[in-house]
Every structure is written in structure tokens, then in C-alpha cells.
């Protein structure tokens, strides 16, 4: 039987659901409405248009075969009717009607529906700062915002920029300003690290250091108080600690789901916003579906509601909804929270829970760090990759993996492998034996993921006792009383410079000579072992354990992690 499907929202999930349903039920009618004049665009590509990687804003709204996804496209190609500049003002569930208003003329009308899709998305979190209405201040919402920002840069109006917020959009916009345009760029973040709760302070510090090397300044633990301007245009950002010059300001303090329409209709909405849906993407009304940035779904690790505003998720959920509108039983079980962000020549990626998030969720968790080459050590284009695994101590369940490495496919490929297996509650030994495609140009014979799990296995068994680069920094900086004895387990050629620069503090005993030189190791101090990545120092720890030493610490990630972290020896 033919139906009339009404879809509220025309950016990501809405078009996907509408087109999927129309392909399955071509005899039915689909009406999609959006309060904007611009529909079906790739919002995640906005920073790359500002940077110049994407040459035209139009490309964000085209198909892979270069057709613009506008009203005519949806009508002629997809058979979907679209009403732009049309705002849904009320849902009458009893009469199954949507009240709408033309935002230009104010004209109102009513749309009858058999099934309804709420795809209202999310909106930038407003800070309500004095001066937010000044020219040059932007929330990054749509391609029109991106065009305005880029036009201002191209006209020479921007010599300095401040980004408020160190999440995905904030970091991507900071890179866009500094990399392509050479603009003096600063990031102000109210927490004490970039990507808070998503990655550990160690990985965050590595990413921060790389961005600082590229000219981006960071101010953590600061709250923006006001934006000041001259002649109607922003000129300064005032925090609780300083004043920064700024010809452009990007406010990237996160987004909030637009769920008021659903709430006013009596649908179940989360306390912090977001439409509640089941695994079929149905709301509390079985004739109304929702998803994308306006909905909350189940987190497959914690079992709690999760808000993950990503275009990839919206598209997958849209297909599920389109299938179910047509009478199918497709499911979207939930998310594990996977992400990746490009930071100049590097990437920061993760899936599942960070250590902070795991502890907050009630797990007795520990994290381990591994630094290893992303391909065979003899292959010429190898690069070091840093991975961190979060594990529940009692059950040995892997709760998440995060990493920092190159901006190529190697890093995100490892994260995607873990993301695929996380819903099955893998344990450390599952990752230790995870089958990975191998050839020297692509991986090591013992892949970095396998090695990472082996480190976790040894840590949980108590035979690898160590700290990461942050823990090393604490030991190194607090060793004024000489309570620690640092031993570099690398060969003399690698260690000699550090011995010369740190006489009496830095000692060199290559791991292969340790048994013969055991008398050089003091038994009345904490012995801290360091090598290049943590592998040889782990072997040294085993030797010292055998010889009866009971206070030995291995530095996970070794000198590679120490350098990336930014510790100067």
C-alpha cells in the first residue's frame, strides 16, 4: 500500500532515509522539508574547504558523479519532493500531521503523514559571550559559513585567528588557518588538554606538540570571557588569564541535539537532549523514526545512551530507517565511538573508551602504551605509530584503543580493526591473536596491534611493570634526591649523547650486557629502564627480576614516546 512519508531535515540522515525508502517503495510519496535553503551537504568537509583542500564549496553538495544535490536533483533523480525554507513548528501525533511554516513568507500549512522521520540534526553550542555578534565571529555550521570565512581570509582581512574549543572541528579549523593560509592561530580550551575524554593526556600532549611545531598556540584551562571589536569587527578574545589578538574567531565548543520538536510532541527525549530511539531507530511512537545528530543511541561498551554526531553514523542510520519505513526489520545496535582527526602530517584516532572514560563508567581499568613501526623495520617508508589500549583488569576485556601516528591509512586502519571487534567484547588474547593482512610494505610480521595486546597481557600478569612518558617525566623531574637510577638499555652509540648531557643521572648498560654488568645496578634505588620503544627495557626488567631486584620500572614506549611527548633530556 502506498504511503506518504514526511522527513523533517535534509542534510545527512534525512536524504539517506528518504532515498532508501523511495527505492524500496517507488509508488509511495516522500516529502522532505528543511528550514534552510541548502540541503544534503557534507558538513564534515567544511574545514577542508576553508583550508583549500576542497577547492569549491559546491563540491560539498555534489554526488561522486558531480551532480548537485539540490531540490531538482531529489525530484528528478530520486523521486523525492523537497520543500526548502520550510520549518516544522509542531507535530500532531494524534492526527498524524506536521505543521509547517515558510520562513520567508510566514505562510503556514499542514502535511499529513503515514510515517514520520525526525532528522533535525544538531546545532553549535552557544556560549552567549559578549561580542558574539561581531563580524568575523563564526560558528561552523554549513557551507555558507565556510564561504564567508574563506572569503574574509582571501581578502586579507585575517592576520590572526582564535579557535575556541579543542575538539574535532576546532583542531581541524586551526590546521586550516595555520597550514594553508599561514595565519597566526591560537586555540583556547577550557579543559587541560585537546580532545578531552577521547584520548589520554599522553596522546593529547603528543598531538599538541606536533601542532605547536606547525605554528598553532594552545591555551588550556582558560575560559573565554568576552570578544572585543572595533568598528563592528572582532579584534580581541579576552579569557580569564589573557587577551589574544584575533581578526577571526571560530567558536567550536561542541554541538547539542535539536530535539525540542520531538520533546514538544511528547516523544521520549534524553535529559541532556537527544531523541531516544530503539535499535530499529523508532522513537517512543512506532510511526516516528529518528537518528543522526538529533538522536541518542546505545553505547555498546557501557550500555548507556550515547551522543555521537558524525555524518558516517547518520548515513548508516538513514539506510536502516529507510528500510524499516518500507516494512523491513533492519537494526542499528549501537556505537563504540570511533573517530579520527587529521592534524597536519599526523592523525589522532580512537575507538571505544579512553582510560578517563572507562574509569568514569565504573571500570577498574588500566592503559598500556606501545610505540612500534607501522610496517616492517626494513621497509624504507616505515613510520612510528603510538597506540594505547584500555583494558578492564578483572575481566581482561579490551575497552578501547586510541592512537597517534601518520595521517595515512595505517593508523585509522588499526583503529577500524579494533572498532569492528569491540562489540563482541574481545579480551586481550583476542587482539594478541587478531589476524591482520601482512606484507612488509603494510605491516610488521607481528603487527603493532598484536604487540600492543602482548604488552597489555604482560602488564596484567605483572611481569611488565611500567609507566608511560608522563610517568617518566614525573620520575625524571622529581629525582633531585637521587631516588631513581636511570638505565638506557640501548647500544652505546644511541645512549652516549644522553650520558654526556646528563652526567651522573643517565647511565648506559646495553640490554645484552646487563647480566655481565649486574653489579653496576644499585639495589637501594628505584631502577628506571629505557630503550627506544620499551621492548629491550622489558627484557632488561625480566633479567633484573631474575636477579632479585624488586623496584624496577619499564618506560612503555621508550625514547620514541618520550620524544613525541616533548620531554627534553
Automatic annotation (TrEMBL):
InterPro entries: FAD-bd_OxRdtase, FAD/NAD-bd_sf, FAD/NAD-binding_dom, FAD/NAD-linked_Rdtase_dimer_sf, Pyr_nucl-diS_OxRdtase_dimer, Rhodanese-like_dom, Rhodanese-like_dom_sf. It comes from Pseudodesulfovibrio alkaliphilus. It holds the Pfam family Pyr_redox_dim. PROSITE patterns: RHODANESE_3. PANTHER family: NAD(P)H SULFUR OXIDOREDUCTASE (COA-DEPENDENT), PYRIDINE NUCLEOTIDE-DISULFIDE OXIDOREDUCTASE DOMAIN-CONTAINING. Belongs to the class-III pyridine nucleotide-disulfide oxidoreductase family. GO terms for molecular function: oxidoreductase activity. This is Pyridine nucleotide-disulfide oxidoreductase. Residues 507-567 form the Rhodanese domain. Gene3D superfamilies: FAD/NAD(P)-binding domain, Rhodanese-like domain. Its cofactor is FAD. Keywords: FAD, Flavoprotein, Oxidoreductase, Redox-active center. The keyword Membrane does not apply.
